[in-house]
Amino acid sequence: MSGREGGKKKPLKAPKKQNKDMDDDDVAFKQKQKEEQKALEALKAKASGKGPLTGGGIKKSGKK
């Protein structure tokens, strides 16, 4: 037991990830995900150009 135990501990090294071979299904799935992400980004860009959906603030009834 040494007196120098304070301070930051070194993190444990994570084992290196092995490059796994992707079969046709994995490649198709990744491609589909990329296309969906691009479509979502396009929709976000299109929606950001417009103002807020609510217009008018406090809704008032027709009664006086």
Describe this structure in words.
Helices cover 39% and strands 0% of the residues. It contains one helix and no strands. It is mainly alpha-helical and 64 residues long. The radius of gyration is 27 Å and the shape is flat. The termini are far apart.
The residue fraction in helices comes out at: 25-40%
Structural class: mainly alpha
Number of helices: 1
Main pleated sheet: none
Q: What would you report as the Rg, rounded to the nearest angstrom?
A: 27 Å
Mean pLDDT: 76
Strand percentage? under 5%
**From N to C, what is the helix and strand string?**
H
How would you describe this structure in keywords?
flat; mainly alpha; 64 residues; 1 helix
In short:
Helix content is 39%, strand content 0%. With 64 residues, the protein is mainly α.
What order do the helices and strands come in, and which of them pair?
Elements: H1 24-48
